[in-house]
Amino acid sequence: MNKKIALFFLLFVTFNSFSQIETGNEIVAEGYASSKVKPDIASITITIEKENSIEKDALKELNFEIDKLQKTLTKLGFNNNQIKISDYSISSSKEDNEKRYSATNKLVIELALNNKVIDAFYQEIQLNNHKDLDVEFETKLSAELEKSTTTKLVQ
Q1: In sequence order, what are the beta bridge partners of 88?
Q2: How many CB atoms lie within 10 A of CB 125?
Q3: What is the pLDDT of residues 124-133, one digit of tens each?
Q4: Are 100 and 34 in contact (CB under 8 A)?
Q5: Which of helix, strand or coil describes residue 18?
Q6: Please, what is the angle between helix 115-127 and helix 55-75, to 10°?
Q7: Residues 103-140: tens digit of each pLDDT
Q8: Which strand ranges, in their side-by-side order, compose the sheet holding 133-140?
Q9: Residue 152 and residue 137: Cα distance in Å, rounded?
């Protein structure tokens, strides 16, 4: 009988010690959270391309159109810190045995997302008859908004 009690006691202590594993002062939680967030930044990419059979004329036409565009942007209240040159290139090609030069400039404007400002931008572009201009528009989250949303989701 003593052997049975001793065996029972040994098994009880063994099971009890395995079930009480401590991890310290750490809580481990796993899960998934998502949230819809309205973007707060608008990014407008403007590409201007001019072609000519003379390289310096293609550059001259491009620079003229860029100056005209910058006046429009200044009129709308954009400052130089918001307008960045993201690409500037000159290339050549042959068409019908004639060499053609293409001068391209891309500007990126980042601003707080405001539909009134964006509408005014598109209206001014159309009113000022800018030529050889391509506009791309996208929205994104600022670093601050992304960080605060992540913090809320973790909680």
Answers
A1: 105
A2: 18
A3: 888 888 888 9
A4: no
A5: helix
A6: 140
A7: 999 999 999 999 999 999 999 888 888 888 999 999 99
A8: 83-95, 98-112, 41-52, 133-140
A9: 29
